[in-house]
Amino acid sequence: MTKQKITVIPGDGIGPSIIESAVQILKKLECGFDFDYADAGLTAYEKTGELLPQQTLDLIEQNKVALKGPLTTPVGEGFTSINVTLRKKFALYANLRPVLSFKGTRARYENIDIITIRENTQGMYSGLGQTLSDDGATAEAKSQITREGAEAIVTFAYELAKKEGRKKVTAVHKANILKSTSGLFLKVAREVGARYPDIESTEMIVDNTCMQLVMNPEQFDVIVTTNLFGDIISDLCAGLVGGLGMAPGANIGTDCAIFEAVHGSAPDIAGKNLANPTSVILASVQMLEYLGMKDKADRLRNAVRDVIETGDRTTRDLGGSAGTTEFTQAVLERL
What we know:
It comes from Catenovulum agarivorans DS-2. One of its GO terms (biological process) is tricarboxylic acid cycle. Belongs to the isocitrate and isopropylmalate dehydrogenases family. This is Isocitrate dehydrogenase. Helices cover 40% and strands 19% of the residues. By secondary structure, it is an alpha/beta fold. It has two domains: 1-100 and 246-335, Isopropylmalate Dehydrogenase (3-Layer(aba) Sandwich), CATH 3.40.718.10; 113-240, Isopropylmalate Dehydrogenase (3-Layer(aba) Sandwich). Helix 1 links the parallel strand 1 and strand 2. The protein is globular.
């Protein structure tokens, strides 16, 4: 039987330490993976002069599944977001951001279970048509939504809801103002929703969505939206369960997927054994689910849950005093 190869991109800052945590745990689970390591971000730039070397792209293309730490894009003109580049290069049209309450965190809510599904390649966030006038006084950018792109992401949301036994899908938009782009997205969302009569379909303007998420988040189940709105909403949802350290992310295409910690590289604590690896561990859970290893995914999620609920060797952001390695060891012991 051929082993599944995983492209591992440690990333920058705290990335290598939290990725090492996830790899140790995946080995303990006896998933039968082979790990191919590759560089990207500032680490790659310092080594090769490229933020995203061709060798890394080739490994992602070859293995079809990648686990990625946070990446740093140098600040300055001409540098394109590496994450945006990867999403476009491999047509990773669906960004999947689940948030789930774990007892033992410092979250304000206890019963959150929301999945935000964000279109990943179009809209304002894609950076299309960015220009700045010669005098520096006027900046422009272009937002483009296609019927094909909208239908693909909304269908993905409903199919996921159906597969996981979810009851409701909320399409989030700004069609009252952005009548062309957001209007097309909402029109397509209504059409797709009509094909799934067993799932409740609702729609909500994005600003109201943000308010409702703060006031009554339990009303949400699956949220589907466009690129920029999804970027903002998914971080808001992370705040409901304790912050970005508790929020994993998956970028999924037709035949390729990249799973990642969604927080930054935190260079100020790099190399100090302080980082919480939960985000990338939960991204590993997503990866296991994607590969059809649901039993192992459930085991890992439950192990993380038990560590956090009992407060056994948790990191500072979770109210404990342990480091990355101690937290990892606590999860390994439960497995």
